[in-house]
Every structure is written in structure tokens, then in C-alpha cells.
Amino acid sequence: MIRIIKDIFRFLKHLIDNKQLLLTLSENDFKEQFLGSYLGIFWAILRPILFMIIVWFIFSVGFKGHLKDSEIPFVLYLMCGYIPWFFFSDAVSGGMNSVISNKYLVKKVNFRVSILPIVKIVSVLFLHIIFLVILIVILFLYGYSPTVYWIQLPFYTFMMFVLVLGISWFTSALRVFMKDISQIISVILQLGFWITPIFWSISVVPEKYAFILNLNPMVYIVEGYRNTFLSNKWFWESTEYLTYFLSITLFFFLLGIIVFRRLRPHFGDVL
Amino acid sequence: MNKSTVVKVQNISKTYKLYDKPIDRVKESLNPFKKKYHKEFHALDNVSFELQRGEALGVIGRNGNGKSTLLKIISGVLTPTKGHINTKGKISAILELTSNLKPELTGLQNIELNLKISGFKQSELKEKIKEIEEFAEIGEFIKHPVKTYSSGMKSRLGFGIATSIEPEILILDEVLAVGDFNYRQKCLSKINAMRDDMSIIFVSHSMNDIRMFCDKVLILEKGNKIFHGNLEDGISIYLKKDEEKKSKLKSTLSEKTTFYGDIFHNKKKIHDVEHYWIDRFYNKIENARTGSKIGIYIKFKLNFEPIDLIIGLPIWDINGNYITGKSSEMDGFKIDKNKDGFYEIFYIFDNILNPNQYINIISIVDKSEVLYRQKNAILNVTTVKPRYFGFINLQNSWRLSKEKLILNIENCKLLVNYNDNSGLSYDSKGSYEELNNKLYDEIKNKYNPDTLIDIGANYGFISLVLNKYFSLNKTVLVEASKKLVGFIDKNMKENSVENYEIINAICAEINNDNRSFANNPWNSQDNRVKGEKNWRTETVNTVSLNHILKSNKGSFYFIKIDTQGYEQNVFLGGEEYLTSHSNWIIKTEFAPYWIKSQGFNVRELLKYLLDRYIVSESPKRVRYSGDNIANLIKNQLTLQDIDTFIEYIIKYDKNDRGWTDLYIFPKSFGKV
Q1: Which of A71, A172, B587, B597 could be a cystine partner for A99, CB 3.0 to 4.6 Å?
Q2: What is the span of the domain harbouring residue A100?
Q3: What pLDDT shows up at residue B264?
């Protein structure tokens, strides 16, 4: 355990020393995804926006009066849920493939393969930032003005980052040896979209089931984004749920580190 | 780790676990009870060595013996199953040519990325990028994705990057195997320029590359280190091992890759075929030295009368390079059978081949019908020289002036005239029969000659050599050409021959007479006593062999006669002494063409000699000879033999100018 902690510190130092490299790699990854096409980054934004418009249309025009007791406009409610989820789902599936799609770097001397999931997540984070900007613009359009609660946004984003990183270390290492993991993850992500209160509210679920749904750590993040922008709540207000989230994140983080460390020496044999 | 050690490999083993299913690997590494799910393959077994700063280590071994695995472990791509590895300093490795390039990125982006991964700062990038661009010579393509590159461009870029990141340890896995000559040169010179502050680990199958680069050699066989040390020892061990393996396997990978033409044997027409490599004594050999005289012996019998029999002897090296090919037809050599009905061919040449293994095809063709085409045994050529390059060892000389040249032949320094064919002939020869001659050993041991008489001394070369063989008290050199006397004198002094006497005279039947003597017009020292019409003549004193023998008292004489056809007069002038004493051995040249040109009868001369002495052919040709004195005397010429012998010598050269050396002994030798 002490070795792992030492390794984490060494790894952090390595990250700081090589932040330039990390940024370049992420930048390359980002560009590579979008710059090949004519409309470039427009596609990256269009897809989720379109999706949100459809969901908004269905629920505020089709099934009217969904969030009766709330004064919060549905669009904002939806965006605060979908934007972090989109980051999560994009980063988890990208992170999973980060090792396998960078074989040439794995075979490189002096290269820490463990930064590859980070590279991917940072690359997805660029897009996330763009969405956050869009969200803030829309908030302004709806008459919202910045509150002191907004400063907790980095906390939630960072926590989500750590959660995704843990999961990605775990899945990316497994992915090298197991193709099936990508199917499993895509099923989980699909399921996750529905069981996470993105376009619905957790308050509509009966108490005894809500407890099960709350096991999903993304509930905490999605709610956290809403608390930041819409409900003006501090993240420490529900201590219980914070503790649960922190422990599950720590669990994934350690699981990721242990599995990655164990499997890393065998990458070269397979790739 | 020692201060100067940059790589320390300790008891490294790499076991590849072979899993039936990929998931088994995961199950195993995550299994808390360490259950085994695999079969094992040992790619490396307990290998240890150290690499010092600035050292270049060549790793050799056949395919699949763990070379690449070792390099990958050192460069950190693979993790050893057991053992430790410590490295000091930045490592750059080219394991697969393009392994450091990402196909989707442009050349420029790839360069930048690699530099950043290697820790270069933004400020240093520009200059480095320029350096790599210049090396790779990709031009406009540098702005296009690497996947659009030709393989040559990729490898140039890959190599340029790997060497430009200022590595302290450079690992190269057969990178030079691809690419044209210019590319290789470029790579080599780039590496050479960096040699001083860099250690190199280099894998290659080309012993020439290894030799050019490396200080030390590591040989891997089936994952085991079987040798680590000195370059030349390593290479010879490897070649030997290689040879053993090949003879075991009979057909090998490297041989398979080369097409030597169809292998064929028409057993109905040709049989009892035998062929092998021979040394200059016609003994069967498998190994030869560069610079020696060697050959190929072929013997066979035909069931029919051939129309136009031709033998072709192409030679390849083991890497499949076609070295040379000669046929009897090209040289105008006519193949005839001997009395036993066998065809027996001795193909002799100066071995200028550099150390390597050579494959030779024996092809026997009648007119255009192939009768036989088979591989000869492999010849293993070695050398004692510390270094050599390329395929062949040119018979060259280095000169500081146009007029004179000093040759260094087996420790004899020989000064000769450059404008002189016979002087040059010393230069171009690859080997000298006079050297390492078993007969000389025997003469020295049995008779211990103390006086050498060198008649027709030319530049004195034979005297120099024989002074090394025998413990001589006196050397008498007789040379008719005034011009040569100075050379002889210098050569004797330069090689510190003690107590020599040079007589500027023609050795003839009368002492102290005058003779005319001719130099030929192209200034060759190939002197003829009776020259042709337009040859420049001069008058020279004569000296008789009797006179020389009487005025140089010795216990045993070795007399060498080389007078271009004037031998009869020499023998006449020595007859009195030679017939009445038995403390001498003569070695003389016997060239029917020249004897005739001096107006003598070849048959008469031989008959004259046979009447008085024992005459044998020196161990140069096949018949009438032997490689020791007892055999020479046993095989001596008889009167009945004379005509066949003369004809046989004459025919040795296609222009009927064949010649040989004769050993002449006193009659009393035969009675012992």
C-alpha cells in the first residue's frame, strides 16, 4: 500500500514535469478527432446539442408539465444533467481505448503509459469546457447571474475527473487483453443514461427505490452541477452522500491503479 | 552500478506465457492464489552483462534466439520475467523501423511529439526539428501524414528522430538491413559522429556491420548468453556455431533465401563425381585463410564422349551475394580425361576472399546440356588480420613515389622498381610458394645449409626469404643486370642479411669471360642473355658456378637457379664441383620455352641432368613430385619419362609456355 502511495506521488511529479507533453498529446488527440472533417469541432458540439433539443422538445412540448413543482426551466435542468453525463460517457469510453489506440506510444522507451487515459480525459475535458461556456451563456439568457455557489464547479468537475480516471485505468488495462470489455462498458453507459436523473428528477422516485438509484456515483455529480448552477446548495450540505461518493471514487481510483500496475508489464507482450 | 556502466543486466530471463485465450492472462494476473493458466516459452534465460559508457556492443545470434527480446527489455518495452536491469541515461531505441511514428500525424508533428516525449523544451524544439528534417530529406512531405510516406521516408524519419534526441544509449535492431547504400552510409556516419558520448547496442546479421561498429560482441543462442567479449573472437565463434548448425540442418534459412540455380545430376551420363576445396598441396580443406592459394578439385567419369566439356564454378557468399563465376570456357581451358578415364580438374586461385562462408556450385556442361549442377562443400575463410571490410581483399600496395616501391611481404621489406613488370609481380601476388614450404623445413632440419647461392637474384627476394628459413653464414647473389645490384644491396641491408656478396655477372660455363646481355625494350627486368633484335644489349662479365663454390667454402649449399633459359650454361660451369661433391641441393626453374629461346635443346638439357643427378619436379604440379625429399627422390624423372614430362610442362600454359621448378640432388642422395 505504501508503495502504491509512493508511486502515486511519483506519478504526480511526473505529470507536473511533463505537463507540456500531456497537453500536446491531448491537443493532438482532440484535433485528430475533429479536425479531419470540414465542419470540425462543430460536429462535436452539434450532436449533444441536437440530442438535448430533442429531449427538451419531447418533455416540455410533448409530455407537458413534467417538473411541476419547480421554477427551474427544464432546458437548464436538462443541460446541467446532460453536460456532465456526456463528459462522463465520452471520457469513459475514450479512456478505455486510450492504451490500445496508442500502441506506438506503448512501445516507446521512456514513456509512462499510465498517462494515456489522462491524455484522453483531458482531451474530452476541452469539449466539456466548451459546453460549460454554452451552458453559462444560456443561464445568462434565462436571467441567471453568477452566484458564489458557482465556485464549486471545479470541485465537481475534478471529482468527476478522478472517478473517470480510476475507471479508465481499470478498463484500459483490461481492454488490452479483452475485447469484450468495450461491449460491457457500452451497455453500462447506455443503462447509466437512463438511471441517472438527467431529464427526470430523483424526487419522483419512491424513497425505497431512490436509495438504489443513489448508488450510482454520477447521481452525485449531476445533482452537484444542478446545485452549483440552479439550486444554490453547497457540496458539503449532504455529508452522507458526499462520503459515499468519495469512497466509491477512491475505490475505483485504487482499483484502477492496482489493476493497471499489475497488467502494465504485460502490455508489451500483447500489443 | 559502476560509474562507467550504463546498462547492467542481471540474470534476466524472459518467459513468454502462451495462453490459449487472451482472457486467461487477465485471470492469471488478477488471481489471488497465483493459479497458472499458461504454457511457457523461454525467450531469454539468465542473461547477464554490462555495457560501459562509450562502448558499442553487437548482439548476434540466429533468428528467434532472443536478440530482439533482449533489446526490448533493455529499452523498457518488455518487462523481464526474472532478473534486474539498471540503465543510466536517456535511451533511444529503433526496434521496429517505424515504431516511433504515428501514422495519422504529419512528419512534423511526429518529430515534435517525439522530442517532447524525450523531454526537450519548447525553446530547443526548433533547432532539433531542423536537424531531423535535414537528415530525413523528406522535403514537402514533412507536412503530410506519415501514412502517406514511402517506407524509405519512414525509416529515414524514424532514424533521424531516434538519433537526434541525444540519447546516451542507442539501441538499434537491424535498422540498417533496409535502405540503399547512401542511406546506410548516412546512418553510419551519423552514429559515428555521436560515438564519443553514446553507448550502442546493435543487432545485425551482417558481420561486416558488426565489425565496423562494435567493440564487443554478445552471442545469444536459444536465449542463453554463450559468449560476451572481444569482437573477433565472438564473430569467429558465431560463424563456427553457425556452420555447425547448418551442417546439422543441411538446408538453412539463409541458404534457402538464395537461389543458386537448379540442382541437377544426370546419373546416367556422369558418375563417380567428387569435388572439394583444396589447398596448394591439393589436400582437401574446409577452412582457408585470406591470401593463401587455394582451389577446387573436381573428379568425375562420363559414360560418353563429350563434344565440348565446360566446367563452371560460380561462388556465392553465405549471405547470397554472387561473388564471382569462372568457367573453363572463359579461360580457354580444355578439359581432357586422364589415362584412367577420369576427368580430374584442379582449379587454383589466389584466395582474395574476405572472411566469410562461401558456397560454390560445380556445374558441368557438355555443349549446352547440363550434366551436373550441385553445391560444393561450404568454404570457411578466416584471416589473422585484425580488421577487414567488404567482400574481397585486393592485392594492393601503397606507394609514396612513382619509381620505387617497398613491399612488405611476410616480414621481408622488398624494394623494387615500379616501372618493372617482374618487380610488380611480387606486388600483385597473393601468396608465395617460397613461404611456409614444408620442403624448406625438411632441408633445414636434415642438411642445415649454411651457404646460399642465388643465381639470377633479381631483387634478392628469394635470398631474403631463405635467410629467414635457414641459418646461413653466407649468401652469394649473382645478377647480370647492373641496375638491380643497387636494389639487391639495399634489400639485403634493409632486412639485415649478414655476410652477403653480390656478383654482377652472368653465371656461365667459363669463369671471367665477357657476354652480351639484353634488356628488353619495355624495361622489364626479365633479362635475356640472348635478347631479341631490338633489345638493348650490354656486355657483362661471367662467373662459373665452380668458381663460386670454390671461393665460398661452406658445409652445405643451397643453390637457386633462375636464369630464364640459360640454365644449361650454369650447370656446365658447375659440373666439376657438383659431380664430385654431394653437399648441395639445387632448385632451378625449368621453362622449355625460354630454354629454346636461348638456343638450347630442352631434351638434351634434361638428359644431361638425368645422367649426372637426381631430378624431380618441385611440389608445384601434380605428377613427378612429392612434398618431402624422400618422395621427390622416389618420383624422380627417368629417361623414359622425359618426353611426356616436357610435353606435360609445355601444355601447362595455353600458349605452350608452361614452366615448373625442378629440385636437383646429387646421385648419392638416392642411395640412402
Answers
A1: A172
A2: 2-270
A3: 77
B178, amino acid identity: V
* Residue A16, pLDDT above cutoff 60: yes
Nearest to B29 among A105, A109, A266 (CB): A266
Among A88, A91, A94, A98, CA closest to A176: A98
Residue B100 in contact with partner chain A when CB distance is under 8 A: yes
Q: Which domains does chain B have, with CATH numbers?
A: 53-249 (3.40.50.300), 261-382 (2.70.50.60), 404-671 (3.40.50.150)
Residues 6+ apart with CB under 8 A from B487: B415, B416, B417, B459, B460
Residue A213's nearest CA partner among A230, A223, A73 is A223
d(CA B57, CA B66): 15
ipTM above 0.85, yes or no: no
* Residues in CB range of B51: below 8 A, 6 or more apart: B5, B6, B7, B8, B57, B169, B199, B201
Flag whether pLDDT at A221 surpasses 50. Answer: yes
Q: For residue B255, name the pLDDT band (cuts at 50, 70, 90).
A: very low
Total tally of structural domains belonging to chain A: 1
- Residues in A touching B76 (Cβ below 8 Å): 109-110
Spell out which residues of chain A touch residue B72, defining contact as CB-CB under 8 Å.
Answer: 268
How far is A207 from chain B, CA to nearest CA, in Å?
Answer: 38
At residue B275, the pLDDT reads 93
HEC secondary structure over B561-612: ECCCCCHHHHHHHHHHHHHHCCCEEEEEEECHHHHHHCCCCHHHHHHHHHHH
Considering A71-85, A170-184, A197-211, the range whose residues carry the highest mean pLDDT is A170-184
Nearest CA in chain A to B98: A104
The reply to whether residue B76 touches residue A24, judged by beta carbons under 8 angstroms, is no
A16 touches chain B (CB under 8 A): no
Q: Which of A24, A174, A259 sits opposite B116 (nearest CB)?
A: A24
Phi-psi region of B613 (alpha: psi -120 to 50; beta: other; left: phi over 0): beta
Give the total residue count for chain B: 672
Kindly list the distances between the CA atom of residue B346 and the CA atoms of A243, B5, B281, B328, B467, in Å, as whole numbers in the listed order: 96, 55, 11, 11, 32
> pLDDT tier at B257 (50, 70, 90 boundaries)?
very low
User: Is B670 a residue whose pLDDT tops 50?
Assistant: yes
pLDDT of residue A70: 64
* Per-residue pLDDT, B475: 94
- Residue B347's DSSP bridge partners are B296
Question: Can you give the pLDDT at residue B254?
Answer: 46
Cα(B672)–Cα(B669) distance, integer angstroms: 6
Name the percent of chain B lying above pLDDT 90: 16
The three grid cell numbers given for residue B397, joined into one nine-digit string: 600496395
Residue type, B548: I
Phi, psi of B296 (to 5 degrees): -125, 135
Average pLDDT over chain B reads 82
Write out the DSSP string of B82-93.
Answer: EEEEEE-S-EEE
Closest residue in A to B103 (Cα–Cα):
A104
